[in-house]
Amino acid sequence: MDWNRVEGNWKQFKGAAKEKWGKLTDDDLDVIEGRREQLEGKLQQRYGFAKDQIRKDVDDWFRALK
Fold first, then answer.
1. 36: Cβ–Cβ under 8 A, 6 or more apart, which residues?
2. What is the largest CA-CA distance in the chain?
3. For residues 39 and 63, is the Cβ–Cβ distance under 8 A?
């Protein structure tokens, strides 16, 4: 699976993202619309982690979706 599938089916993956990162609001998830860069930016904003940590967390989450 590639990231395009997440982007194309974002409504299905929104729940999994909200479950993993509870600080993301429904409005955040609507703005993200499955775009990885938007997701990473919102996670940095909400959690204050470094960009490399966020990228690793998103990669781990993505692998778990498969």
1. 3, 6, 7, 58
2. 28
3. no
pLDDT in tens, 43-56: 999 999 999 999 99
Q: Which residue, among 38, 15, 20, has the nearest Cα to 28 in the 3D structure?
A: 38
Confidence class of residue 3 from pLDDT cuts 50, 70 and 90?
very high
Q: DSSP letter string over the chain?
A: --HHHHHHTHHHHHHHHHHH-TT--HHHHHHHTT-HHHHHHHHHHHH---HHHHHHHHHHHHHHH-
CB 38: neighbour CB atoms within 10 A?
A: 14
- Contact present, 14 and 7 (Cβ < 8 Å): no
